[in-house]
Amino acid sequence: MKQDGLFVRLSAHRLFAGMSEEDFSRALIMLDAHRRAYARGEYLHRMGEPLSAFGMVLLGTVQVYSDDPDGRGMMMANVAEGGSFGESLAFLAVPRAPVHILTTTGCEVLWLRTASLRTPSSDPFVFLLRDRFTAMLATRTLEMNDRIQILSKLTLRDKLTTFFTEWERRTGSRTFTVPFDRAALSDYLGTNRTALSRELSNMQNEGLIEYYKNSFKLLC
Amino acid sequence: MKQDGLFVRLSAHRLFAGMSEEDFSRALIMLDAHRRAYARGEYLHRMGEPLSAFGMVLLGTVQVYSDDPDGRGMMMANVAEGGSFGESLAFLAVPRAPVHILTTTGCEVLWLRTASLRTPSSDPFVFLLRDRFTAMLATRTLEMNDRIQILSKLTLRDKLTTFFTEWERRTGSRTFTVPFDRAALSDYLGTNRTALSRELSNMQNEGLIEYYKNSFKLLC
DNA sequence: CCTCTTCTGTTGCAAATGCAACCTTTTTTC
DNA sequence: GAAAAAAGGTTGCATTTGCAACAGAAGAGG
Known about the structure:
Two copies of one chain form a homodimer.
Chain A: H1 6-10, H2 21-30, E1 34-38, E2 43-45, E3 54-59, E4 62-67, E5 73-79, E6 84-85, H3 87-92, E7 100-103, E8 107-112, H4 115-118, H5 124-152, H6 156-171, E9 175-177, H7 182-189, H8 193-205, E10 209-212, E11 215-218
Antiparallel strand pairs in A: 1-8, 2-7, 3-6, 3-8, 4-5, 4-7, 9-11, 10-11
Helix pairs in contact in A: 5-6, 7-8
The structure holds a DNA duplex.
């Protein structure tokens, strides 16, 4: 596999942080990395099939969706550049993944297999990789806690303020651009697109925020 | 530490499944296990402090709560007998845990430290334990996905049917008892206690379910 | 057995919001 | 650059549901 620029782009990722370029290459080999480009709207994975590897987004944005029995789609995760998805399903080798995964933009994805992480080995490097992977999962559960906190709020206004506060904390700025369009954001918040538009309008009229497209500025 | 009965009670847990009693004892030593009893309503952990170990509930039920900035408590997890909590916070050694943990009944908890899981070692047994622990985390993220699905539903009726369907799947029966009282259940579903009571009544009147206390029977 | 506490259910009301219908703006495609 | 498609906004209306207040039932402790 060509590794052009991969080291530069991924050396900050928590899975590879602090590795030398040699170790990084070694990690990619161990994880049987392969790289693939996808068009906008293309499926990376279909529900009901096993996920043989987890993905790391090199370019673009992918979304993890779960279909309700009644067909209403539900976004489980929105993964931007540098993010990853499917770690748990791949690690556990779940035979029928309960989600489908698709792109919202043109994308490039690095697929990584977890098989070598589960094979006993006394190699300290394997140990390191496994430790990093476990830490990734632990971090993921903390992130999901954040989402659960938002979804647990009873009013849309509360959801939005929690969401904004989180992004302020995450970006360290009161102005930020989120990787969601309105429909995706309403999914993420567990609400309705038009209700979301309405509430954003209200908040702008009340002087709490300003926004243009997906860029928001907190005025509070 | 006394291990009376622990092997019998925990040998089915995914962390220890399939281990001989000797290996089990060895695991407890490696994880620096210690056992402690708590009274109903007692705090196992207070928000803002580091969690030096994760817990496994031997007896009773504990709840993980997160306080809103505005003080409204929010239940993040309800952990019944055989369940565990705090794995991510302990593994990552988060300096100030964002939750508090308390009992809802008299409880007995087995505390387990993750330090040995992070220390490089070529011991195959360490490898096994780490693998189990990682699988625990992966399973946890899948469970949280289920909760997120429930919380993402727009109506209380939808939340309840999803919740019931999940318990039907989990227990394999259309009659089951959940470890939540009404207040806890309303927290879990992200709604209001009285609204929950109302909707349960409605569903019973419509002949969809029957219930007595925390036991539910699906009639659909 | 009695008291006190906790849990659960009911109801009226006001506020929130899902939904449908429709329009405007932006983006994509050819 | 025109046409088509996608995204975003607005509004009215009906439904949902959060909230408060209260009452009955069950449980705990003496």
